[in-house]
């Protein structure tokens, strides 16, 4: 349990807030908002927090509470980390080593030493995509020796004859395509025999 300044995701700061790190939920009491000069509007299962003409927060009622996210404003070390993260983003996800090099040359305002947290964009960029094995393309030499088939549906919109599905047959040799529309999936065998 301790006293600290509280900043919310909606750019509102509550000074001298009491927080308990082991409690699962952060609660903000309306009287604290009143004391800070904020005005609360409740109604129609919605909450709106304003200060003057500025809308600071809007939230829906969930169950019997109005939920919002809150962050504890920490000391200046976290501000430096935030600035390092901001410079990291501004400079197209530059490495920590690159940021420190620029910081030593005083090229980045208010940044002396950069320690970056894991960046989701960088982690995604470092992932490798496994490619499909490249097999030599071997086509059959006779017509209708090998036929590829697929069924598609159910479609969101019916066709002119009220079909919701279609089946395709592709000859491997000639790559000729046949398409049959179906009203129901059980018509596939009939269309295959017709093909």
UniProtKB/TrEMBL annotation:
Gene3D superfamilies, alphabetized: Ribonuclease H-like superfamily/Ribonuclease H (3.30.420.10)
SUPFAM superfamilies in the record: Ribonuclease H-like
Protein name (Swiss-Prot/TrEMBL): GAG-pre-integrase domain-containing protein
Organism: Mucuna pruriens (Velvet bean)
Positions of the GAG-pre-integrase domain: 80-127
GO terms for MF: nucleic acid binding
Cross-referenced Pfam families: gag_pre-integrs
């Amino acid at each position: 349990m301790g006293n600290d300044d509280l900043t919310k995701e909606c750019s509102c700061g509550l000074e001298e807030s009491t927080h308990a790190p082991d409690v699962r939920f952060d609660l903000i009491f309306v009287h604290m908002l009143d004391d800070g000069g904020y005005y609360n509007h409740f109604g129609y299962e919605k909450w709106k927090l304003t200060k003057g003409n500025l809308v600071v927060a809007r939230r829906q009622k969930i169950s019997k509470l109005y939920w919002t996210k809150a962050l504890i404003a920490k000391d200046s070390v976290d501000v430096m980390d935030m600035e390092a993260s901001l410079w990291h983003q501004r400079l197209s996800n530059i490495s920590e080593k690159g940021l420190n090099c620029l910081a030593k040359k005083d090229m980045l305002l208010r940044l002396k030493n950069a320690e970056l947290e894991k960046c989701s964009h960088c982690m995604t960029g470092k992932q490798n995509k496994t490619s499909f094995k490249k097999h030599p393309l071997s086509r059959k030499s006779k017509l209708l020796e090998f036929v590829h088939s697929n069924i598609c549906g159910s479609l969101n919109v019916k066709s002119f004859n009220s079909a919701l599905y279609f089946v395709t047959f592709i000859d491997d040799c000639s790559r000729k395509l046949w398409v049959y529309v179906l009203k129901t999936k059980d018509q596939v065998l009939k269309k295959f025999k017709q093909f």
